[in-house]
Amino acid sequence: MKKFKPFVLLASSLLSVTLIVPSVLVLPFAEGKTNGKLGENLTQAPTKDTTTTSAERTVDIAVYRANKGKIETVTLEDYLVGVVAAEMPADFNEEALKAQALTARTYIVHKMVTNDTLGVPKGAQVNDTVSNQVYENNDDMKRNWGMDYDWKRKKILDAVRATSGQILTYKGEPITATFFSTSNGYTENSEDYWGGSYPYLKSVSSPWDKNSPKFYSQKVVSVRDFEAKLGVKLGGGSTIGKIVDRTAGKRVGKVDFNGKVLSGKDIRDKLDLRSSDFTWSRKGSSIIISTKGYGHGVGMSQYGANGMAAEGKNYQDIVKYYYQGVDITKADSMLATITAKK
After folding, report:
1. Is 244 exposed, middle or buried (0-12, 13-18, 19+ CB in 10 A)?
2. Which of 94, 176, 217, 286 has its CA 20 to 30 A from that of 319?
3. Backbone phi, psi, residue 14, to 5°
4. Residue 111: phi, psi to the nearest 5?
């Protein structure tokens, strides 16, 4: 899922965050002397419902299928099933899947209520990529899941229907329900990563993520590419830049490269890192970069949600933990208004 507008056209988090099969972590250059490291110099509950609301049976969503170059119209329920199937593993705990269904519904309702179609072709309301929410249809699910299709789709459908008609609101308005894969142990303030402050998107501890297979990662970049992508020159000193600021979520805020200051987000984007919580060291002509977490870090951590569910928390507990001060609200009137306008 992509970050929210207006300050970003909603990337990577997911985002926010889309879940992919984790690659095997390899620790190259484990032996031998390392020269040049990243230094640091800081200066300062509703009843369970297994039926779909009438509104979710009548509201259609026009999804632009980016790879196919065409618009596919599906019911709101089918859209939500397709988003949860694409964004979260079906073998996650049921309460985590419900939390994901609730965020997915909140996201699309927010777009419909605000008539937000930025970045999608005429006639579409949303696309199926990380710039909005990743979506797959039944044919995609059958191809991806094979013999597991029946039980996986049923499990996700049950999660969608258990939260039917519910959205997350703050002061009566649908929230910007951003989410991502894995934190570094903390979520991030929205203003620390994107610049816009949302009262419900504040940093909280997320210790469950340490069990995620995506918690640690490592990447090797040549010195030449590192310099070119960041627009810096590395000298022969003992450090490669100095961290001069950290965020509330304990990620890199700013790095000073001999007078040129880059944000942790800029560095993450330019080097295509999994997280803005990183360290690095130089070995010969290579820079070895280690990261903690996967995604932008703002909003709900998916692996954190699964960890909370494993400890007995329900989906209401989960969303209210990651989105501070929100309410779970019935969206029937909003959906009815949307239907009436068609």
Report:
1. middle
2. 217
3. -35, -65
4. -65, -40
Task: Answer for the pair 126, 14: CB distance below 8 angstroms, yes or no.
Answer: no
Burial 122-142 (b: 16+ CB within 10 A, else e): eebbbbbbbbbbbbbbeeebe
This prediction's pTM: 0.84
Cβ burial of 218 (10 Å; 0-12, 13-18, 19+) is middle
Question: Angle, to 10 degrees, between the axis of helix 264-271 and the axis of helix 223-230?
Answer: 130
Residue type, 118: L
CA pseudo-torsion sign 273, 195, 321, 44: positive
Please answer whether residues 111 and 126 qualify as being in contact, where contact means their C-beta atoms are separated by less than 8 angstroms.
yes
Backbone phi, psi, residue 7, to 5°: -85, -5
Cβ atoms of 150 and 142 within 8 Å: the answer is no
CB 232 within 8 A of CB 260: yes
φ, ψ at 295 (rounded to 5°): 120, 180
260-263 vs 60-65, strand pairing mode: unpaired
Tens digits of residue pLDDT in 108-159: 999 999 889 988 999 999 999 998 999 999 999 999 999 999 999 999 999 9
Which residue reads 């100095």 in tokens?
242
